[in-house]
Design a protein that fits this description.
mainly alpha, 2 domains, 71% helix, 0% strand, elongated, binds zinc ion
Length: 154
Amino acid sequence: MYVESMSVVMMKYRVAACDGFLILMGLDGESTLSGNQVGELKEVMVITTAQSEIARLEQELAKAREKLATVEEQLTERPDFGLGQGGTMLYEWEMNLAERDRLREKIASLEDALERAREGRYGICEVCGQPIDPERLKILPDTKLCAKCAAARR
Ligand SMILES: [Zn+2]
């Protein structure tokens, strides 16, 4: 029920974005396919793409949350700043603090990406509106920019 209604939403939003991809695969050029068949193929592809994106993002999110829990646990033991090993321990403490902040940002960013995926807006560049290269999304699952727009922003 939930998945089904979400898929319908995704279809509406993602078909346009998938057009270039479908044309590349030659599906739109197949004269043996009726308009309906092309439409069905698009729907299947859109649902499959969106669901695998969501699954991958959920996995990334679970990993990041797990890491954060570990780091936070390490941070509950405050080092003794005054004596002996204090220097090393202080260094580790600070490393963990930085890691905790980094993970919190990552989690927020992944949650945002997951929301976009559920609404069918995932993988579309925020600036130019073009689909983001899947290879880029593999490395940076929570990116909102295509490689070109990200380079231009730097
Ligand atoms: Zn772009």
